[in-house]
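Task card 7
Instruction: Convert sequence to structure tokens.
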Amino acid sequence: MYKQVVCFLRRKDEILMLNRDYAPVQGLWNGVGGKKRENELPLDCAIREVEEETGIVLSANEIAFKGIVTWNSDKEVHGGLYVYLAEMPNDFTYETPRKTSEGILDWKKISWLLNSDNLGTGEMIPHYLPNLLDQSKPLKHICTIRQRRLTDYEYTCLDEHE
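Output:
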């Protein structure tokens, strides 16, 4: 249904983030991810994108489906993506900052990502990330955008048919 995935890799109180060199969200910190290939399952895409963008190899049992994020204006859905979370071991070593072909990877404190004064992350992330991290069930995050600004955020339990 959706053509993009994003994955957040959490180690203790940090998440591995990518400061993107290219659109969308160029210059902002975001999770790693990208576009699905034709007939590629979202989980397979998330695993592939994590490896391509970070060099970290995950298996299917190391990554959890956390739901979908959609964005709309005037309640008409304009896009969406599948969201995944990988819980890395506390002793997992991955040196950052690290320059890649996609941008700069760095571990960022969750508190930094969620700080209301932080303008360096994608605008939707501080709204949906706390629920993504705290809830065990997959959620549908609905973001309303007007004039390129987030004006509303809500979430519901994900319908099994979505």
